[in-house]
């Protein structure tokens, strides 16, 4: 039993803190080495940055476990680096590249995603500046509310909104892939190594959240369960469909817009 206590109290927090680096360092290195981000979805840094920024400000109202806060800070740094590398190495429009590294493959030529159009071509901009402008405004608004509007930032309702928003956004990371696989009856384009890292992360996260003595808000546990269920269903899809040829009609590589 003492071994489990050591794992939950020391190993799991260490894994959570370092998970942003261990999960995305290979992707950053791969893009930098190949000088191309073809096949990489810019939605990944978008989702993780929004979720982590929410969780960063949430900590100042909830003071949840320090390891989870440090994880959020590390994730922001890693995703900013990943976004910068990906933007600097984007292929020219229409370049024919492989899509084997695309976790979200159901993108359409009309800048829609899973059937939903993106207003103002959101997060599909050709120029690099709008990405940083959006992130600056988003972070700046939360900072202004936190520092200059304490009658809002110190309310329980606002604090809960930050927590639920951040955790919900992060929990929905696997959902587009689940829907894409279900629609195509295939896991083509989804690497089993990505699935393995997600499932390992779920196991460590669930162990820590439910067995640690640290203060863990219920929202963390609920969203962790939801994300774990989605990742497990991804594994089931891989067993059912494999990585064979898709049965649905998807756009070719030339039609996929990466920003």
From TrEMBL:
The chain crosses the membrane at residues 6-25, 37-58, 64-87, 131-152, 158-180. GO terms for biological process: phospholipid translocation; retrograde transport, endosome to Golgi. This is PQ-loop repeat-containing protein 1. Pfam families: PQ-loop. PANTHER family: PQ-LOOP REPEAT-CONTAINING PROTEIN 1, PQ-LOOP REPEAT-CONTAINING PROTEIN 1-LIKE PROTEIN. It is a multi-pass membrane protein. Keywords: Membrane, Transmembrane, Transmembrane helix. The lineage of its organism: Eukaryota, Fungi, Dikarya, Ascomycota, Pezizomycotina. It is found in: Membrane. InterPro entries: PQ-loop_rpt, SLC66/Scramblase_ANY1. It comes from Talaromyces atroroseus. Coiled coil: none annotated. One of its GO terms (cellular component) is membrane. It comes from the Eukaryota.
